[in-house]
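Give me the fold.
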Amino acid sequence: MRPDDVDHMRRALELGRRGMGHSWPNPAVGCVIVQGDLVVGEGWTQPGGRPHAETEALAQAGAAARGATAYVTLEPCAHHGKTPPCTDALIAAGIARVVAPFADTDPRVSGQGFDRLRAAGIEVVTGVCADAAAEDHAGFFCRLATGRPLLTLKLATSLDGRIATASGDSQWITGPETRAHVHHLRATHDAVMVGAGTVRADDPLLTVRGVDVPRQPVRIVLSRRLDLPRDGNLARTLDLAPLWLCHADDAPDDVRDAWAALGAKLIRVPLFGRQVDIPALMQALGDEGLTRVFCEGGGELAASLLSADVVDRLELHMGGVVIGAEGRPALGALGLDRLSDAPRFVLKSVWQSGDDVVQSWQRQRRQSQA
């Protein structure tokens, strides 16, 4: 490894994050091409997953790519999809060295890209910034491994764990700085998800505002019977962002037809008891190509996701207010008898946002799943 490999890979990761939330179902990859001490090309995966980062960087580098080093945040693809393999493009451009964190777990690639590069006489270096790259690609890897997208659950609570007063008033528990941060989080996810109760109570837009994004995230509403207002903000803004409605078989046909006529995408999900089957819901979202979903409540949906053990990241935003026991709790019932069965998370970061505290937690695998 060369002394500047880490710096260039960090830049490639920074570029890759520009595509996060917009490149699905493809990974958000970044690429930097360096000739000597000079950066001659940069690129990242474009909205919708194409063109790929390597193609973008090579186009910028032009003839200067010959003999250069390419820093790529994931193994270059080796298969023909909707675009030719990036390995072929790197070889044709005369790249002399490729630096990457690790192999792609996609079985269509899985080391074959590195093998083709080495067979062409290109030096391949791996292991650079692997931990950071693994976090950035966690959604892509989650979908490959489990069939479902990575799920981030956000809870905005009072100091005593309430999300609203008894009457349902919740605006605002957290301050403007934290609410702006939520829009940045939405921008890095493929979709924003809420339950029907949140739509009926808050009439949200669920769009990214205050952040420049190439396309809005998909808006997902889980509603067993589609009992949602058809004159609300979601229905009025179908031209701004996609709306996916996840429902059960007992949703009335006329209601389904009405939402479809408005332009919403309808996804049928089986029931588990009297509720929508959460694992089946997550698999359905994975089948649609989503890799990262950001859930913003409410309490019953949050409890269902936690009970189903599909929450990978937990964003806890606490405002400096106390509401009391009569307020609405952040979570519905989990039905736990033993503490050992409780979902557990590992603290990854904590910081002050205005007068609020923002905590980021990561799922701790249960012992039986290790």
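The first strand starts at residue 30 and ends at 35.
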